[in-house]
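ARCHIVE CARD
CATEGORY: sequence design from structure
SOURCE FIELD: tokenized fold
FIELD CONTENT:
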């Protein structure tokens, strides 16, 4: 592998680009070598060493004190959005962050509005950083030009670009640095620490007097700056805080904090032995899961990166790609998760936050939720309508609604769902204007049929199958 990576580096013209590429290949080789070592030694977790976190290791948000000086605290804060993902899973081209989610605003628009409001309200200078991938960088740069006149500093940097590896030979797929894009991959958000350091942005933030970095997924609309958690972190001196929230049956696969041999760790489902998977999914034993809203001390990142001390668990991800000869080949990409690094930071712990801080948009089912009357927009943040009682409704839209374009054509007007508990729609279904959904609503259209829900329909605790004529009778 080392020789193959050296040959790859030889294809890069000499200069600054070559030095950057060689550094990335060195980092990749270290990851690859660690993967082989882990595989050989079988570093499986010992289930008997796992216990629930202590009261100090997981704190309830309600017990945290209100801040007394928000403005002073915000002077020490920078916000980072993970912006490496494409909108392909929702049928979109380009960065997921530029999908419109609410009242003409994209994910990125809302993030900018939130921070701009903070900066105005407290006369602060909280910068927004975007960690792009090589997939999203160019498009993101084109989009952020429009924020030039806003009261916010936006900085971008790229996460690493690593070569995919052939599963059979364990050799790199690309033979030249300019090989097609499908030969490469961004190695997961665990790459944040190294990329932030290599880009120079880490040192720049420290020079500006920034101490805390609030990190979240770009598609989590609940991940707003929270003064209580920021204040708690500064007061306790914790180097890392992970926001957890209560599990529901929809979240059983989410990673959770555990105590492992006296140390706080993140446990992911991929690490769980098969015979314990059901136990892991149990809401009784593991009550919370990781939202990936993280508060991390910048000086600690610098210390750990410069001592090469962050060794997060490697997640091998198998893919199939078409090579230059037009053949399908199995490849491997080695990834890491930013949450897994928690065990390397001093005073690290979890804070159990309200569910409202976890509002991800992964599918068009989620999109229906955040576009609905369940929420209203306030300074770029989504707020739950106070008249809503109980948890958010469970929404499941079928494959006819998978792409945003299909969703928009079938749901031209978002239904009112303030009193909805559960919605399932499958098949060739369209919703008219002014539709109200309450309780449990299930609409199943068989193949070859069509159901159009008429304008103004009020559906409460109903199951609808068949076609439009059945509905009208």
């Amino acid at each position: 592998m080392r020789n193959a990576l050296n040959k790859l580096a030889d294809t890069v013209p000499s200069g600054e680009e070559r030095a950057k590429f060689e550094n990335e290949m060195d980092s990749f080789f270290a990851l690859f070598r660690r993967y082989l070592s882990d595989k050989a030694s079988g570093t499986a977790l010992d289930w008997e060493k796992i216990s629930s976190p202590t009261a100090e290791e997981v704190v309830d948000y309600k017990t945290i004190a209100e801040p007394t000086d928000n403005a002073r605290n915000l002077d020490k804060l920078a916000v980072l959005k993970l912006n490496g993902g494409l909108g392909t899973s929702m049928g979109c081209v380009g960065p997921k962050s530029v999908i419109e989610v609410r009242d003409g605003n994209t994910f990125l628009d809302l993030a900018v509005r939130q921070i701009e409001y903070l900066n105005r309200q407290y006369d602060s200078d909280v910068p927004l950083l975007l960690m792009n991938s090589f997939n999203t960088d160019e498009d993101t740069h084109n989009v952020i030009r429009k924020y030039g006149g806003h009261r916010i500093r936006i900085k971008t940097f790229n996460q690493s670009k690593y070569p995919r590896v052939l599963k059979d030979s364990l050799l790199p797929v690309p033979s030249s640095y300019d090989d097609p894009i499908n030969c490469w991959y961004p190695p997961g958000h665990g790459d944040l620490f190294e990329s932030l350091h290599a880009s120079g942005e880490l040192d720049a933030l420290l020079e500006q007097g920034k101490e805390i970095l609030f990190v979240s997924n770009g598609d989590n609309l609940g991940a707003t700056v929270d003064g209580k958690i920021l204040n708690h972190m500064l007061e306790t001196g914790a180097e890392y805080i992970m926001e957890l929230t209560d599990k529901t049956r929809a979240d059983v696969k989410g990673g959770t904090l555990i105590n492992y041999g006296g140390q706080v760790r993140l446990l992911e489902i991929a690490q769980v032995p098969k015979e314990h998977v059901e136990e892991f999914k149990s809401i009784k034993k593991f009550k919370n899961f990781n939202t990936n809203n993280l508060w991390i001390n910048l000086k600690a990142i610098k210390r750990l990166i410069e001592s090469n001390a962050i060794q997060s668990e490697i997640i091998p991800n198998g893919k199939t790609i078409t090579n230059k000869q037009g053949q399908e080949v199995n490849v491997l990409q080695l990834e890491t998760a930013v949450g897994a690094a928690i065990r390397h930071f001093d005073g690290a712990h979890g804070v159990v936050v309200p569910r409202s801080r976890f509002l991800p948009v992964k599918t068009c089912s989620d999109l229906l939720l955040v576009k609905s009357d369940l929420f209203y927009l306030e300074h770029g943040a989504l707020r739950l309508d106070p008249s809503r009682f109980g948890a958010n409704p469970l929404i499941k839209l079928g494959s006819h609604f998978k792409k945003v374009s299909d969703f928009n054509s079938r749901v031209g007007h978002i239904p009112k769902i303030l009193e909805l508990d559960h919605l399932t729609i499958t098949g060739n279904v369209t919703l008219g204007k002014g539709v109200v959904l309450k309780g449990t609503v299930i609409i199943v259209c068989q193949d070859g049929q069509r159901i159009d829900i008429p304008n103004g329909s009020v559906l409460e605790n109903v199951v609808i199958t068949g076609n439009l004529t059945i509905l009208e009778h």
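CARD ANNOTATION: The chain has two domains: 2-357, 364-472. The radius of gyration is 24 Å.
SHELF: design records, drawer C
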